[in-house]
Amino acid sequence: MGQLLLEATGFQKAFNGVPALKDGRFSLKAGSVHALCGGNGAGKSTFLKILMGIHLRDAGVLKRNGKEVVFDDPSVALANGISIIEQELSPVPSMSVAENIYLGREPTGFLGCIDFKAMNAQAQELLDGFNFGIRADTLMMDLTVAQTQLVEIAKALSYNAEVIIMDEPTSALGEAEADQLFAAIETLKSHQKGVIYVSHRLSEIFTICDSYTVLRDGSFVEAGTLEDIDKDRLINLIVGRPLVEEFIKENRAQDHDVLRVTDLRADRNVRDVNFTLRKGEILALYGLMGSGRSEIFDRLFGLSDETAGNIMIEGKPIKIDDPKAAIAAGLAYVTEDRKGSGLVLSGDVRENLCLATVDKMSPSGMMNSRAEAAAASGMIDKLKIKTASDRLGVSNLSGGNQQKVVLGKWFLTDPTILLLDEPTRGVDVGAKREIYRVMSDFASKGGSIIMISSETDEVLGMADRVIVMRDGRVAGEVDRAEMSAEKLLHLAA
Amino acid sequence: MEPQIKGNAPAGVAQKYTLSDRLGSQAQRYGILIALVVLCIVLSIVSDNFLSSRNIINVLRQTSINGILAIGMTFVILTRGIDLSVGSVVALAGVVSASFATTSASGFIPGAPYMPLIPLVIGVLTGVAMGALSGIAVARYAVPAFVATLGMLSAARGLTLIYAGGRPIPALTDGYRWMGTGDIIGIPIPIILFALVFIVSHFVLTRTRFGRHIYAVGGNPHAAKVSGLSVNRIRFCVYLISGALAGIAGMVLAARTGSALPQAGVAYELDAIAAVVIGGTSLAGGVGRVSGTVIGALLIGVMNNGLDLLGVESYYQQVIKGGLIVAAVMLDRSRRTES
């Protein structure tokens, strides 16, 4: 393989005296895709932010092409050929794709005016070079989330960087778009670039990466080539203990319908949705991005303006036009966007856990802090939420623990039906398993779950039954006994 | 093939909390309070009069009106809103309530033969009504708060001038004037009102369900909605509160002045916003306390008083106040990005 593009040793970084990174090491070769693995809180983000010049390291040596360097500003990192595709997208929605790609470095012509023609041509060439199938003059706001992600990727590549960092690049992509991304990565490899790849989806790592480095609790654990290890071994390294089985599923669906939905309509042209949910069942809604999965949840939870269709709970027709009514009917909804609609990030753990039960806990209008504290600490124990205290700001928790806080909030409402939209997105393997355990327990005790997941493995591992969505309609229904990845994909595409 | 690099990390770097770190973080947390204390110490050194009980009471009394407005503003800003109309509502509530407490009835002005309580209730209701209109625009019709209350700023001022016929309402009854000039065991009524408003607001925000809702709506309205909170109702209510407190402030001002002026309260919203911002409440919503706002209002009051005592012209005072507002927010920002 090629020369050493980047070599980091002994990276240390502490925030307010709390070490986030104690011994970060990493080396990247030209023409390779190197997976940076670790659970939430392992120090990956801190490590990447040092590479990008956002944080300044407290100690450690960074060599770029053999020369020692310090990046004290993102522009310095960029000038050194390091570019990043961030997890959180930051497009300017009202501008075109080309304008977004060349934002701040637009090609100029006469009198310093922007040469739109040249810019569009350059951008189109770039997009076509990776077969993204996006027109450079479309407005960003007209793109899907997945296309937006691809544009961000094109933008990062347009800097002609030698080192490209990808932080969870597929978290918003469907399988087809992910394949486009992987093809782009292969192209980069053949151009002798180095890619640092971060993803919680281990199957992806084995598909696209050739070497790995594992961090745990801020320290280097192991590095090597992926050919030499298997998935179990990698999980083992990441969580620091052997993991017996990825999924936990002990529930069994009972012969009793809890929820019956007929002729339901939802936003984005979702219609004719019919299904039933049984007691103790985990039902999965499967489909590509934009197939209307989340819209069904929004409709069931009273977050949609659409009202057509019938919802029956325990045989009784019920009208749900706002979340309050949904909660009263025993529903709970863990949304896809944890930070956007799940958590109040300025609040602490306790406030977030009690958010949906504030009214229940304050019958007289006064908050009862003792009852709140008891409820919060009960949930922290039950879900094994790792937090120093229930008064800690929820923004300080790792992704997995934040997700458990959202789950805990809903368990406090004593629901009978859980709607889980991508419940393990951005969550590390250890916390994932605990979420599966919680799901299994809930269903075993007679609760019912509808789950949306883009990870086929997760659907196969957890669901009793799958409803496959395509273009806003139900395309088919598959029982656990007949489930296979091929069958699901075949119905969905 | 790449070489296998194996090994465990060396023992974690010992956590070090140096004394200066700790002092630093405390100084940041109580920055505004410390600034206030330092300012008071400096003023007590350079001016003999500053620490006299008369002057202290004077500062508090001068601060009370802005303080009451700023507390209402805190409720609004906590929900990511803003209320630009409070200065105009001060004037309107002052004029309307005073019209029921004047001995010179004419035109719209009904005059004085009312129980002393009637004008008070009417003053508060006037503020509530204006707040309700802003609140409906913001919560029900999704008009941006800046625009809705900018409209109210103009409309309420116009209503004030129409109602009062452009003239002050003089000759207020003694009972009404007591609100601005009276005292209980030597403490002026405006200060007592300010303190009561603070205590009640602090209690509401920290101890009640409604307070919790306000923080949740300001912190993340989407999450609040999904969690079953009535986001629009809460947004509506904060404008009611701001309006009611503007009504109280308007009456205190009229009572202190001795007559209700239709031009009263111009630009008061700016001082109120300044106090909230200096007090550390985030304009992005969800973060802040009324205690911070009170300190912010006191800081502005003490500074004005100190500059007066030192004989600095009021023109200069405005420049200094402007600098202070920006400096306070700059301090706040740098603290947040560091942690």
Describe the structure.
The complex is a heterodimer of chains A (493) and B (339). With 493 residues, chain A is of the alpha/beta class. Chain A contains 18 helices and 20 strands. Chain A is 33% helix and 25% strand. In chain A, a hairpin with a 3-residue loop joins β11 (257-266) and β12. Chain A is globular. The mean pLDDT of chain A is 88. By secondary structure, chain B is mainly α. Chain B has one domain (53-338). Chain B contains 14 helices and 3 strands. Chain B has a two-stranded antiparallel ribbon with strand order 2-3. In chain B, α3 (53-78) packs antiparallel against α11, α7 packs across α11 and α8 packs across α9 (209-219). Chain B is globular and about 55 Å long. The two termini of chain B are 42 Å apart. Chains A and B meet through β1, β2, β10, α10 and α11 of A and β1, α9 and α10 of B. β10 (219-225) of chain A pairs antiparallel with β1 (5-6) of chain B.
What are the main properties of this structure?
heterodimer; A: 493 residues; alpha/beta; Rossmann fold; 6-stranded mixed β-sheet; 18 helices; 25% strand; globular; B: 339 residues; mainly alpha; two-stranded antiparallel sheet; 14 helices; 2% strand; disordered N terminus
Any idea what the radius of gyration of chain A is? Answer: 24 Å
What is the CATH architecture annotation of the largest domain in chain A?
A: 3-Layer(aba) Sandwich
Low-confidence stretches of chain A: none
Q: What is the residue-mean pLDDT of chain B, rounded to a whole number?
A: 86
| Total number of domains of chain A | 2
What's the CATH superfamily of the largest domain in chain A, by name? P-loop containing nucleotide triphosphate hydrolases
**For the CA atoms, what is the radius of gyration of chain B?**
23 Å
Q: How would you describe the shape of chain B?
A: globular
- What is the CATH T-level topology of the largest domain in chain A? Rossmann fold
Strand content of chain B: under 5%
How far apart lie the N and C ends of chain B?
A: 42 Å
Q: How does the overall form of chain A come out from the CA principal axes?
A: globular
For the record, the count of structural domains of chain B works out to 1
Count up the helices of chain B.
14
